[in-house]
């Protein structure tokens, strides 16, 4: 998958206290995505953030 020609295989996902999941953003590196998670974690609401890698397929 790409976005404007740049590979962005790392997703930040958010799950709220009702179990709804949302894609927060896509990032080029795991480290970059993890920094976003760390900046969002602990903001008071019952939300969980994590990093996932998008499986890359050719097509």
Structural account:
The protein is of the alpha+beta class and 59 residues long. 19% of the residues lie in helices and 39% in strands. The chain is built from one helix and five strands. It has one helix spanning 30-40; strands at 2-3, 6-7, 10-15, 21-27, 48-53. The strands form two sheets. Strands 4-3-5 form a three-stranded antiparallel sheet, with helices on one face.
Describe the secondary-structure layout.
Elements: E1 2-3, E2 6-7, E3 10-15, E4 21-27, H1 30-40, E5 48-53
Antiparallel strand pairs: 1-2, 3-4, 3-5
Q: What attributes characterize this protein structure?
A:
19% helix, two-stranded antiparallel ribbon, 1 helix, 59 residues, 5 strands, flat, three-stranded antiparallel beta sheet, alpha+beta
Q: Outline of this structure?
A:
The chain is an alpha+beta fold.
Shape: flat
Describe the biggest sheet? 3 strands, antiparallel
How many beta-strand elements?
A: 5
Q: List unreliable stretches of 5+ residues.
A: none
The largest sheet has its strands arranged as 4-3-5
What's the Cα radius of gyration?
12 Å
Q: Cα distance, first to last residue?
A: 10 Å
